[in-house]
UniProtKB/TrEMBL annotation:
<keyword id="KW-0547">Nucleotide-binding</keyword>
<comment type="similarity">
    <text>Belongs to the ABC transporter superfamily.</text>
</comment>
<keyword id="KW-0813">Transport</keyword>
<protein>
    <submittedName>
        <fullName>NitT/TauT family transport system ATP-binding protein</fullName>
    </submittedName>
</protein>
<dbReference type="Pfam" id="PF00005">
    <property type="entry name" value="ABC_tran"/>
</dbReference>
<dbReference type="InterPro" id="IPR017871">
    <property type="entry name" value="ABC_transporter-like_CS"/>
</dbReference>
<dbReference type="GO" id="GO:0005524">
    <property type="term" value="F:ATP binding"/>
</dbReference>
<dbReference type="InterPro" id="IPR027417">
    <property type="entry name" value="P-loop_NTPase"/>
</dbReference>
<dbReference type="GO" id="GO:0016887">
    <property type="term" value="F:ATP hydrolysis activity"/>
</dbReference>
<keyword id="KW-0067">ATP-binding</keyword>
<dbReference type="InterPro" id="IPR003439">
    <property type="entry name" value="ABC_transporter-like_ATP-bd"/>
</dbReference>
<keyword id="KW-0997">Cell inner membrane</keyword>
<dbReference type="InterPro" id="IPR003593">
    <property type="entry name" value="AAA+_ATPase"/>
</dbReference>
<feature type="domain" description="ABC transporter">
    <location>
        <begin position="3"/>
        <end position="230"/>
    </location>
</feature>
<dbReference type="InterPro" id="IPR050166">
    <property type="entry name" value="ABC_transporter_ATP-bind"/>
</dbReference>
<keyword id="KW-0472">Membrane</keyword>
<keyword id="KW-1003">Cell membrane</keyword>
Length: 247
């Protein structure tokens, strides 16, 4: 599914959050959005999700204006947002029951997807009985089970410890390779952007404007991002981090 931002402005009252943003996100492409806190990244995802409207300009999905949320464009937040009164299995299965699948079929698939994210055997646990990393794994399973054409990920691993984050990045990359959704990934972690994305858009402080776009070779090998040292240095410099002064 292609997603197009065509000259999009967004204001909240007097506050301009997005400044004439144009971009095309192609089918199956993973694009990372990085930029200073408060610059408007989440606002861009909310417009892609249909939760917010542009003040001017258009957001188009497969050529049609995005007017409201749709299951084909799933948003995953930093906070897992599982229902606390449902087990992990029921939380994940719910995404399919919304698609009018039978409860039994949904439960079977939920078990499969929980195992894809390393949660085999935890179907019957409630969110409060597992760790934050496990809740976020379940949230990813819930996002993927409905096979959305577009995944909108808003700092999905931002609240996790470093090791859990690395392991979930691997899970995400595997799931993306299998299901081939288009992904917009907001992250403040430059390594995460370089590891997961085909392209990285670096934004200015508010109002969000693209300072620079980086296109990365399609398949990267591992978490050792030595090949991308130059890009990392350039992205950090655009974000105002003086790498040389630290080293
Ligand atoms: P980011 O995700 O890049 O940190 P956001 O897109 O969340 O930034 O927010 C950008 C700016 O827009 C912030 O100053 C924020 O306070 C403001 N903002 C976001 N959503 C709303 C809203 N619904 N109403 C008013 N202001 C908002
Ligand atoms: Mg945000």
């Amino acid at each position: 599914m292609s997603l197009v931002f065509d000259n999009v402005d967004k204001h909240y009252g007097d506050l301009q959050v997005v400044d004439r943003f144009s971009a095309t996100f192609r089918t199956g492409e993973v694009v990372a959005l990085v930029g200073p806190s408060g610059c408007g990244k989440s606002t861009l995802l909310h417009m892609a999700a249909g939760l917010e409207r542009p003040s001017s300009g258009q957001v188009l999905c497969d050529g049609k204006p995005v007017a409201k949320p749709d299951p084909s464009r799933t948003l995953v937040f930093q906070e897992h947002a599982l229902f606390p009164w449902l087990t992990l299995g029921d939380n994940v299965a719910l995404a399919l029951e919304f698609q009018k699948q039978s409860k039994a079929a949904a439960r079977t698939q939920a078990t499969t997807w929980l195992s894809h994210v390393g949660l085999a055997g935890f179907e019957g646990y409630y969110p409060h009985q597992v760790s934050g990393g496990m809740r976020q794994r379940a949230a990813l399973a819930r996002a993927f089970i409905a096979r959305p054409a577009t995944l909108l990920l808003d700092e999905p691993f931002g609240a996790l410890d470093a090791l859990t984050r690395l392991s979930l990045q691997d899970v995400l990359r595997t799931l993306v390779a299998e299901a081939q959704p288009s992904v917009l990934l907001v992250t403040h972690d430059v390594d995460e952007a370089l590891f997961l994305a085909d392209r990285v858009l670096v934004f200015s402080a508010r109002p969000a404007r693209v300072l620079r776009e980086f296109t990365l070779p399609h398949r990267r090998k591992g978490h050792d991002l030595g090949d991308f040292a130059t890009e990392k240095r350039q992205i950090l410099a655009l974000l105002g981090v003086e790498v040389d002064a630290i080293a």
